[in-house]
Amino acid sequence: MTGAEVVPGTIHLVDLEGTLRVKHASGSQQDVVLDPAPSDDPDDPLNWSAKRKLLLTTSISLYTFAIGIASAATYSVYDAIEKDTGLTLDELNRGTGYMFLLFGWGCLFWQPLAVQYGKRPIYLISTLATTYFTHERGTYIAVYGFFLAASNFLAPLFAGFINDGQGWKWVLYWCAILSGASFIFLFFSLEETNYHRKVLRGGQPTSNGEGGSQIDVSDSFEKNGLGSSAERVEEGRPGEKTKSYYDKLKLFDKQALRYPKRLKSMAIRPLIFLTFPVILYAGFSYGSYIVWFNVLNGTTSLILSEKPYVFTTSIVGLAYIAPFLGLTIGTLYTSQVGNWVILELARRNRGIMQSEYRLWLFTPSVLLLPGGLILWGVGAAHHVHWFGLVFAMGLMGFTNIVGLQLSVSYCIDSYRELSAEALVTVILVRNTMSFAMGYGITPWVTDMGLQNAFVVAAFASLAQVLTVFVFIRYGQDMRRASIGRYERYKEEMVVTGLAH
Predict the structure, then answer these.
(1) Separation CA 241–CA 12 (nearest Å)
(2) Does the predicted TM-score (pTM) go above 0.85?
(3) 287-320 confidence digits (pLDDT tens)
(4) Which of 62, 219, 346, 477 is close enough to 13 for a disulfide, judged by CB 3.0 to 4.6 Å?
(5) In terms of C-beta density within 10 A (0-12 exposed, 13-18 middle, 19 or more buried), how is residue 11 classed?
(6) Phi then psi for 306, rounded to 5 degrees?
(7) What phi and psi values does residue 354 have, to the nearest 5 degrees?
């Protein structure tokens, strides 16, 4: 690589002096640099109209909601399933753990197919990294996270009433019906977002955080090589008319079939990416917040259906309104406040954004996560009023979406070009942690008791949250140390046509 060293995740996001010859955002954010740089092709997902992007976002949200509902609908009807089938609560929690384990490791098979042949036939989360600009991405990942978490919170609510009216088996039948209806909608609305770019543009900061001025697109490839902030610009189809509706419905892109097949390497790379500290941390962070909410999920029916609360199945489901409200507040916090924070910090740093800026939004979780666990577990052990437990569920809902959105955003912001496979690494770590907790939650709580188990959980969660300050302080150094390997894997993806 020739020219200045470029650190992945270090981006010239704000053009303070208005001297960069690159495309900028419009409206009140005219000083914000569009990163990645869009092409002149109307079918470049970055150039899609607001209506076209809204349809994509709606499709993603429905897909996420349907899958989430199906995977979480049984939480509030565990008691009914246990009585009808003879399965114990421990066995049900173990089954849920195995499900999440397969969800995660199955990505090693499905994600390479999605990247090689297209996300329309085999859809995964990576769409979010290819459609929105850096300064927008936080909002739309928050929307994705909202529907993912909302499905997990609302599924037990719906399931409780379905169980009371039709029996617990119909909970599963309605999940199948929702999945079928979603498939039909997505077939006619979900558009492919894989887009192959070739040329690069410069204008981004070097490793010491200094950006250039008066940058020309024409010579950027030679100056910047394959640096993370020297984004690919276009495929050479400027001015073409947008695809017809029929073309948008095609399951496969002929161009994708011409690229060399690299399915084996794509299945292996997510495992290699475990050696990137930032990616591993993103998975650990995401998994930790999911784990603590799984602890709450695994004990909700146990606590609320027993004395002194004696909630019916439907009322146990209603209790999930609390984490849904916490989720809503958390979504607004991570999207609106989050985008403002990274732009302001970038302006204070001469327009340069570091991917760690978003991590400062974890600060409220230092108190809210362990506080919510203590209120839930210790409160239940001492038979506090049911509102105290419901309030704890709300706190957990807030921290859950914060952990999801910020962890995923940190991974994508740091290694956007590798994000399709890096996110598989994140999901592997997250779901393996979920499996471990689902496997052990019931005997842990039973053997230690609610109070002791959740005191331990609170201190463990505090230690977990505090690790974020290690990455706020040293994350950039870790990213800088990964430049060589990052460039090598990125070049592999560009050569094989897998960089979108």
Answers:
(1) 31
(2) no
(3) 999 888 888 877 887 888 888 998 887 888 888 8
(4) 346
(5) buried
(6) -105, 170
(7) -105, 140
The distance of Cα 173 from the centroid of its chain, to the nearest Å, equals 28
Read off the pLDDT of residues 466-484 as tens digits, 9 standing for 90 and up: 999 999 999 999 999 999 9
Give bridge partners of residue 24 from the DSSP assignment: 33
> Which amino acid, residue 160?
G
Q: Mapped to the 3 state alphabet, what secondary structure does the chain carry?
A: CCCCCCCCCEEECECCCCCCCCCECCHHHCCEECCCCCCCCCCCHHHCCHHHHHHHHHHHHHHHHHHHHHHHCCHHHHHHHHHHHCCCHHHHHHHHHHHHHHHHHCHHHHHHHHHHHCCCCCCCCCHHHHHCCHHHHHHHHHHHHHHHHHHHHHHHHHHHHHHHHHCCHHHHHHHHHHHHHHHHHHHHHCCCCCCCCCCECCCCCCCCCCCCCCCCCCCHHHHHCCCCCCCECCCCCCCCCCCCHHHHHCCCCHHHHHCCCCHHHHHHHHHHHHHCHHHHHHHHHHHHHHHHHHHHHHHHHHHHCCCCCCCCHHHHHHCCHHHHHHHHHHHHHHHHHHHHHHHHHHHHCCCEEEHHHHHHHHCCHHHHHHHHHHHHHHHHHCCCCHHHHHHHHHHHHHHHHHHHHHHHHHHHHHCHHHHHHHHHHHHHHHHHHHHHHHHHHHHHHHHHCHHHHHHHHHHHHHHHHHCHHHHHHHHHHHHHHCHHHHHHHHHHHHHCCCCC
